[in-house]
């Protein structure tokens, strides 16, 4: 079996090849603005090497799912699994040498980053006897290895940077060859980009990105202008697996497609202005009054994915029937409404209350809790399609803080104060506010930690500092070590 794959042609029409064996040892960095053909290049590379080497694709947009139709890649839906299941699946992927696509498109951005980091770390930590060669393709790598923190939580940033750095810096000895693709070199962490020895640089227009690309290709500033003039599907390649001198490559055709909408122009509807207005406004009030029912799709649980991975590797599961379940996808976030309640929603409120009362529930991710909530609602025959993720998170915070046990006037006063409190700190704020409203002693750090879903004392102290900086509470430390907390707006109820 040959290790040379053709990725396209040069300016003279001659075939351009990539040495897969060399690529495994030297890694690859791909850059290209949106629309430059970056995903097309990755697809060509994956298709041509599918029968040569194992492939693992980290896919934040779900663009590479079609590889499963033609090349027997196993699709792993990140939204359908818990953290422990994701880690276990990564171990089986290395053990059985099955090519997979980790689809993250159903997750929020921070959950995508955490899921990918956990999966990559588990690939990296596989036992030595499973260190088989594999290409690990990470699309939109600037998300998973950001040059700056931005709005990403610091712990998530450390987690994903460590995973990406291990992949690019130390993955070679474990058989993992990183292929990272990014729209902006300036947004990609330098210690990740610097570990690649092969480069395919597509069209970009920003001076800082052109200069970094030119530096990597060994081009001077005047030659860097060539990068701006590249056409879609054209890349400048350099590296031991491609060419010892920069070469212009026109990427070849592919056999699978992405899910992207058509980019060409389509004829506009032929109708009068009155007809078009009627299309928009007829029965609008009636449709708006109807609850939105998100389209449900069947999701394979981890046991099904494990079964498919093992069966691809030659293992047999005749003694075991596949277990499948349907999970409702999370509805798009909307403005948070009031907490659940009322005669029509008593069933939903009971499900949320029971879920919040379970030990360890607050330590689970919002996505996992929401899936469990949706599953329990279906089991009890309780309609829940109108409850989106944002409203669920706030309702869960109300339940875990015990707000439902307060009398109506106190509860309503706290709810008004909490309307603008961010979701991630809402539960501890409500627990503190409930104690203040009832004149009870403030919750100790252990109780705040339980509600917050953390076991770190230092994190609780930072939480209280954050709430105080936001003007939500006032903290007074006494010489004896006692702490007094006053909730802004509820001073009349504060404990002495």
Write up this protein.
The chain is an alpha/beta fold and 496 residues long. It has 3 domains: 4-251, P-loop containing nucleotide triphosphate hydrolases (Rossmann fold, 3-Layer(aba) Sandwich), CATH 3.40.50.300; 332-400; 402-496, Winged helix-like DNA-binding domain superfamily/Winged helix DNA-binding domain (Arc Repressor Mutant, subunit A, Orthogonal Bundle), CATH 1.10.10.10. It has helices spanning 20-26, 38-49, 67-71, 83-96, 109-124, 141-144, 154-170, 190-193, 207-217, 225-228, 273-281, 284-289, 302-312, 346-357, 366-380, 389-400, 408-417, 426-437, 445-452, 457-469; strands at 4-9, 15-19, 28-31, 54-59, 74-77, 100-103, 134-138, 176-182, 198-201, 234-239, 243-251, 297-300, 324-327, 473-477, 483-487. The strands form 3 sheets. It has an 11-stranded mixed β-sheet. It has a two-stranded antiparallel sheet with strand order 12-13. Strands 14-15 form a two-stranded antiparallel ribbon. A hairpin with a 3-residue loop joins strand 10 (234-239) and strand 11 (243-251). The longest helix is centred in the first third of the chain and has 17 residues, at 154-170. The protein is globular, with a radius of gyration of 27 Å.
